[in-house]
Amino acid sequence: MSPGTNSHPREASPRESSRQLEGEIALLREELGGLVAELDRRRHELMDIRLQARRHALGAALTGVGLLASAAGFVWLGAWRARRRRTAMARLGRLREAVSRMVERPERVATERGIPAKILTTAASAAAAAAIKKALERGLQYALGSRANSTPAGRNPPIRRLDARGRTVPDA
């Protein structure tokens, strides 16, 4: 019986109707339990990598071969194009295109940078020089400081004598 249909007689006593509802609920529970069990089984199958690899071995192999072939094709195409660009005719063709662009728009050849670009370049150069100078100063101070604290090779550091309060006693 589907939950949407009304198959309960109106003349039935409340006990009979409650028993009938309990029976329907039990049937629906059993049906739902079966559906949940099936979903759980399918979830376990889906997450079983070995099972999926066995089931779809051909598809996985073809996909892998396709990816490898594509990668090899791109590498071959890049090498072929690089080899082709190195030929004398290709260089001559690129030179001809460059000269024709220079003839068409001579104002764009060797143009001088604008004022904002010059200012930005100068500021970036000054900032880089200041950062390098600061890093070198800190490195030099660290190197000199660690060298001053170390003892020369072959000499033992002086032994300091302490009094009862833990203060250094001057050498006599």
Layout of helices and strands:
Elements: H1 14-47, H2 49-55, H3 57-85, H4 88-104, H5 115-149, E1 161-162, E2 168-169
Antiparallel strand pairs: 1-2
How would you characterize this protein structure?
This protein is an all-alpha fold and 172 residues long. Helices cover 71% and strands 2% of the residues. It has five helices and two strands; from the N terminus they run H-H-H-H-H-E-E. It has a two-stranded antiparallel sheet. The radius of gyration is 43 Å and the shape is flat.
- Strand elements, count: 2
Shape: flat
Structural class: mainly alpha
The main sheet orders its strands as 1-2
Count of DSSP-assigned helices? 5
Helicity, as a percent range: over 70%
Provide a concise account of the structure shown:
With 172 residues, the chain is mostly helical. The chain has helices at residues 14-47, 49-55, 57-85, 88-104, 115-149, and strands at residues 161-162, 168-169.
List keywords for this structure.
172 residues; mainly alpha; two-stranded antiparallel ribbon; 5 helices
